[in-house]
Amino acid sequence: MVTSVLTTGEHRPPRFGFIVSKQVGTAVTRNTVRRRLKAVCAAALPSVPEGTDVVIRALPASARATFAELAADVDRAFARVEAKTGTRS
Length: 89
Hints:
The longest helix is centred in the C-terminal third of the chain and has 19 residues, at 67-85. The radius of gyration is 13 Å and the shape is elongated. The chain is of the alpha+beta class and 89 residues long. It has a single domain, classed as Ribosomal Protein S5, domain 2. Helices cover 42% and strands 21% of the residues. Helix 1 (27-44) links the parallel strand 2 (15-20) and strand 3. It starts with a strand and ends with a helix. Helix 1 packs across helix 2 (67-85).
C-alpha cells in the first residue's frame, strides 16, 4: 500500500481516505480491504495528531493480505512519518 500523510495544524479530528481500485479485485474484495483498513485506522486514531489527513492507496497485493499484515503496513507508514517529523502523524 501507499500512504500519504499531511499535517495541517488545524484544530479538527484526523481524517482518513482510502483508494481501493478495481485492480485490487472484485467489489466484495475491495470492500473487505477497505473495511479492514478502516478498522486499522480507527485503532490508530488516538495516536494521530489533530489536523492530520491520511490517504491510503491499496495495491493489488492488499487483497491477499491478512488483517495483521495490513495493520503492520499502516503502523510502519506511521512510524516512518513519526521518524521524519518527530511527531506521531
